[in-house]
Amino acid sequence: MPLSRYWLFLLSIAGLAGFGLRYFGGHAGSLWPMLASAALVGVGIADLVQRHSALRRNYPVLAHGRFMIESVRVELRQYLFESDTEETPFSRQQRSIVYQRAKEELDKRPFGTQGNVYADHYEWINHSLRPAPAPDLPYRIRIGGSRCTQPYDAAVFNISAMSFGALSANAIRALNLGAKKGGFYHDTGEGSISRYHLEHGGDLVWEIGSGYFGCRNEDGTFNAERFRANAALESVRMIEVKLSQGAKPGQGGILPGAKVTPEIAEARGVPVGVDCLSPAAHSAFDSPMGLLRFVQELRELSGGKPVGFKLAIGHVWEWFAIAKAMQESGLLPDFIVVDGGEGGTGAAPLEFTDHVGMPLREALMIVHQTLVGLNLRGDIKIGAAGKIITGFDIARTLAIGADWVNAARGFMFAVGCIQSQSCHTGRCPTGVATQDAGRQKGLDPMDKSDRVHHFQKNTVKALAEILSAAGLSHPEELGPEHIIRRIDANTVLPLSKVYPQVRPGELITGLPDHPSLREYWQGARSESFAPPASLLNARRSKLQ
């Protein structure tokens, strides 16, 4: 039994025994200490047998100290009129929204807007004087079309990529069962499909990264037959090739051998106890055309399931090179997931989390507008992820080009994460991001799966209410003209005026208006990710 987590409970038991012996031995002064110890023991037993709070199960008695300190901190902030500063990546208000919706508590708030509506970059959606009737739920988005024999109807709000290994077995169980209950999908992350992803039969999107976990040879290269076997699983609805991710775009990773347990080795197809490497780049292709051929190969090997790729936009000319390869070859992914540079739940270098990768809104606009300009937008669906938590976050993301969204942090909170920021240490206090068997036991998958389901359901319901208030009946009716942004004290603009809008087919016959984008588009080549020649020439001239 880990004494570091149970010390106060054990001390209470010792106190009860010691003071009890003294009291019954004739020391009347030990009565109150005995009763106090008994009360603490009772609290500890109640903490251990309840199944709703992993923190209380892992830290009996001790957890209540945190709850008391947190409540005092909140009260002090309110009475002293302090601002809700960002001590952690998610604000207290955002975490509160998740907890309330996951627990199906009232998520209303008194006294109106608490943010500064006159601050630069404040955004809102205009309502209509003729609100639409409440739309039918849930919304579904068909992904696959004519290129697939097994298209998939996805929900508008799903669980983003988080691997088994980064998350515990019980967290994976809870997420997948919640997805099953709510009819939305669960992205496996690049750690592949574990036995825990398959226990409850929730829909899966199998993410394949540069390590090819679950479909690799011993040397780390792609294995077609192993891919075919996993892709044939009934739970696997789509396949997603991960080019880069928002948390640390452009980086690979290594899981030290000490952390490669038999369960992780089984899921990833690697040896137990040996360092597990995810290279920075893929070995199955090294060009835009190669990527599209790989996507086509996976679609055929999977028996016609939707196949796409996920990327965080970096060098724009590399994205343009992929777009030109689509235009020239006719080889199209079924979907593209745009991951914002601000996204990511796992540990990553500080500079990467803060300053590498394009933020979601700009990245999504570039991908969406490029496909519009090539007349490909109707053939390729777009998903998006990057700090999406509320119904308004979803509405704004759909308005600027996405068909559906994914979220990771919100669902982590739904399964019990308290953002202790100890994910990389293995000492997660709620059993969410750890492989420690004792800590995992505190997380009850059945209870937390309900919270996952409720969070998704209530957030989509909030989206539906926003759409109704705006006079819209379906998310596909949202456009950038519906979202308004305050530019400065005297200027407000719809996002359709903030971001450039490309006309359908414009890139087939013309060039982007923006000077940099024009240079990147002209210089991008479908056979290479290399920078445009004009940029290389400029670099050479600086060195001369």
Report on this model:
The protein has 544 residues and is of the alpha/beta class. It folds into 2 domains: 3-82, no CATH class; 140-470 and 480-498, TIM Barrel (Alpha-Beta Barrel). 42% of the residues lie in helices and 12% in strands. It is built from 21 helices and 15 strands. It has an 8-stranded parallel sheet. A 3-stranded antiparallel sheet has the order 1-14-15. The chain has a two-stranded antiparallel ribbon with strand order 2-3. Strand 5, helix 7 (195-198) and strand 6 (204-208) form a beta-alpha-beta unit. Helix 10 packs across helix 11 (316-329). The longest helix is centred in the C-terminal third of the chain and has 25 residues, at 445-469. It is globular, with a radius of gyration of 26 Å. The model is unreliable at 72-89 (pLDDT under 50).
